[in-house]
Amino acid sequence: MKKIAFAVMGVFVAGAAGAAEPDWSKVTERKIKLFYPGQSGLEWIMNKADHSAVPDIVDKKRACSKCHEGDANEVGDKIIKGSPAGNSKTQLEPKPIADRAGWVPASFKMTHDDQNLYVRVEWEQPKGGSFGMDKKNEVKLAMMFDGGFPDGGAPAIELAERAGCWVTCHNDLRSMKEAKDDKKTKYIKGGALDGGKFMDLIQWRSGKGEKPVDGYIADKRVMEGGKGLVKAEGKKDGNKWVVTFTRALAGGGTGDHKIEPGKIYDFGFALHDGGAEARYHYVSLNYQFGLDKTVEGVKYYYNVVKQ
Fold it and tell me: Any alpha helices (H) in 157-223, and if so which ranges?
C-alpha cells in the first residue's frame, strides 16, 4: 500500500473529552468559490450608485449568493487585478496584486451528532507568493455564523441572511479606503451580545504552537471568550489543504451561539493565505445551514445531517 505523507499543523484539542471523527465519505460535499473582495465593504455593497444589485438585496430580499455564486471567480479575478467594478467603476484593489489568484476552488462538508457540529473545509493552494504580513501563520481559516432564526423568521443581525459575513466588513476598517485607525477591526453596526446581535467566530491557524480562535464579533471583534470549539486540525497533502472544526452544539462561552434543531444559521468562511492579514483574504459568499432540516428552493442552504 502506498504511503501518503501529510504535513499536520496547528492541531488543537480542548480540555473536554475528544470527539470521534465522523465518516466524511458519507457526508455531502458542497463546492464553493472563495474569492478576493478587495475593499468592497458593506457600505459599497449597499450603495446603489456603486452596486446595481441593491434593489434586489433590499426590495426583493435576495441573497448575494443568488446572483454571484456563478461568477464569484470572475469577480475575484477582476478585483485583484485592479479592474473597475460595479456601476461606479470603482477600483476595489488600489494596489493590484499581479502574482495572486483572484479566487480559490474549495468545498465543505458538515455533519453532527448529539453533542457536536463537525465542519471540514478543503481547498487547493492558490498561486502566488507570500504577503509576509503574518510571520507566524502561513494560513488561517475562519468560520463565522449567527444565532439562527426559525424558517420564515428573520435573523437578529440585519442583512445577515442576505449578505452573510459582509455585515462585519466596513469601509472604515484598517487597510480599507476610509480607514482612520490602523487598529480598527471587524464590527457589526448595532452589534451586541445582548439579543444575539453578534457573529460567532472560530479560526484555525497553521503556525506551530498557535492556538485557534474561539471568539465573536459584535460592536467589536473579540478573539477569545468562547468555550464551544472542541477541536481544530489542519493538514496539507500535496497542493491540498484540509481543515476540520469540532464545535460543541451547546456552546457555553462568551460569544458562543447555541446550535439547535429548527433554526437556520447564516455562515461564511474566510481564508488568509500566504501570511495575509486584515482584508487581504479570500471569502465565501453567504451560506446557510440547519440541523436535519430541508429547505426547498434555496441553493445556498446546506442540510447538516446527523451521523
Answer: 160-163
